[in-house]
Write a structure and sequence with these properties.
It contains 15 helices and 15 strands. The chain is 42% helix and 21% strand. By secondary structure, the protein is α/β, with parallel strands linked by helices. It is globular.
Length: 437
């Protein structure tokens, strides 16, 4: 249904009248009349000109005189213009320009407000201002010590990778597909799709049946694939791969660091899921405190896997920390809104150690586990892959739980171990969703 005609517009006078305050108190009809009278006088003085002379400017005198500075109008104007009670005080606080300049600007500002108050014009609001700022997303964070959420506590921003020099060797992005991994994951989350041209099935295909009859009447053997059948061949899985690119992954020997192993694993997984026909997206993330969690865009769900993905991967920026709770929440939102599949999987490739400014220890572990619970409640399966990290199993279990992480020495182990872990994660999410219903 289209929005009504008035949607996306505002009337300045209605907003101002509803929110005007003087001396910290909301206005009423009597005070509004007083304000209108003062503004009428101000307009007359403006028409007479000569606003440059401070001594002849009644507007400033009204705000600075001992009698006027405590009135409703003076308090109101000082509040909205953030003024001092006199030009001398403004000069003492370091306001740029002379007292005359300050007075002139304030007069012009007041006249603008007068026009807005008395205008019935509807002003269209651009769609860019109606919605949230592009690329910025706010999420809560779980404070286990107080057993409550901190709402709108973290900000996630989606950016393009911008490293000036490659952090890892380009040979890690091997173009050759991993056949063993592909065979291992081929049977995941298949749905039924109807296929014509089958030798056996539950329905006859009329045009094929007619063609067979014509062939037989004309002395030919004909094609006997005249049935259609529902076969489990449809890919119903959406996968979002989150690659931890915090500075802790730079540890290790050159060419065999944690980040090298994780990049190789992420590339193989993205390539494999794409070849299998799954809906797949990939992002790298790191954080600099709660207000700046960065998602580096590598591949979106509707983009092709290819040269553009390789180019973005080569420009990955590796720095900062790991605020995993915010990353999981944003990844869950992307999967829920853009994957378009019945089954959804969030694969986080990380050293498994959540850490950031004022985000460590028990606080970070509990927030991470809370984010995982929220994801499962929305039907999103989550799995943390720790590839080549020296983080001990007990530490991983505290943050992720025993069923939500898989530690392996290298990406070559994925072919034999990953499918079972993914099936368990998807099963846990399905059970959580059924329980909620």
């Amino acid at each position: 249904m289209p929005p009504p005609e008035w949607y996306g517009t505002m009337q300045p006078w209605a907003v101002l009248l509803r929110n005007l305050r003087g001396g910290g108190r909301k206005t009423d009809a009597r005070k509004l009349e007083q304000l209108e009278a003062r503004l009428d006088g101000l307009q007359q003085e403006q028409a007479e000109g000569d606003e440059d002379a401070l001594t002849r400017n009644p507007f400033w005198k009204l705000l600075s005189s001992p009698l006027g500075k405590d009135g409703f109008f003076a308090r109101f104007m000082r509040e909205i213009f953030d003024m001092q009670s006199s030009p001398e005080q403004a000069a003492d606080t370091g306001i740029e320009g002379s007292s005359e300049m300050v007075s002139g600007r304030a007069s012009r500002h007041a006249l603008d407000i007068t026009k807005a108050l008395r205008s019935g014009m509807s002003v269209a609001i651009p769609s860019a201002f109606v919605g949230p700022e592009g690329g910025a997303h706010s999420y809560p964070e779980w404070d286990a010590g107080k057993a409550r959420y901190r709402f709108d506590w973290t900000n996630v921003e989606e950016v393009a990778p911008g490293s000036d020099e490659p952090v890892f060797d380009a040979s890690l992005l091997d173009p050759a597909p991993d056949q063993r991994l592909q065979r291992s994951l081929a049977g995941l989350c298949l749905g039924f799709r109807r296929h014509a041209g089958q030798t056996n099935g539950d329905e006859l295909v009329l045009d094929r049946l007619i063609r067979l009859a014509v062939d037989l009447r004309s002395g030919h053997s004909g094609e006997e694939r005249i049935y259609s059948a529902s076969l489990r061949t449809r890919r119903d899985l959406g996968v979002l791969i989150l690659l931890d690119v915090s500075s802790s992954t730079l540890e290790g020997d050159a060419g065999d660091r944690v980040v090298d192993r994780q990049v190789r694993a992420a590339w193989k997984l993205c390539q494999t899921f794409d070849r299998l026909g799954d809906r797949v997206a990939m992002y790298g993330f790191h954080s600099w405190g709660r207000t700046l969690v960065r998602f580096q865009h590598l591949k979106a769900f509707d983009e092709r896997f290819g040269a553009a993905t390789r180019d973005r991967m080569s420009r990955l920026s590796v720095a900062g920390y790991t605020r995993s709770g915010a990353a999981i929440r944003h990844g869950t939102t992307l999967l829920d809104t853009h994957s378009g599949t019945p089954f959804k999987l969030l694969l986080l490739i990380s050293d498994g150690y959540p850490y950031d400014d004022q985000y460590e220890g028990e606080y970070a572990d509990q927030d991470t586990r809370k984010a995982l619970e929220e994801a499962r409640a929305r039907g999103v399966a989550c799995l943390c892959l720790s590839v080549g990290s020296d983080t001990d199993a007990a530490r991983l279990e505290r943050a992720w739980g025993s069923a939500n992480y898989l530690a392996m020495g290298s990406s070559s182990e994925m072919a034999s171990r990953l499918r079972e872990a993914i099936e368990q994660a998807i099963g846990a999410a399905a059970r959580k969703t059924r329980a909620a219903v």
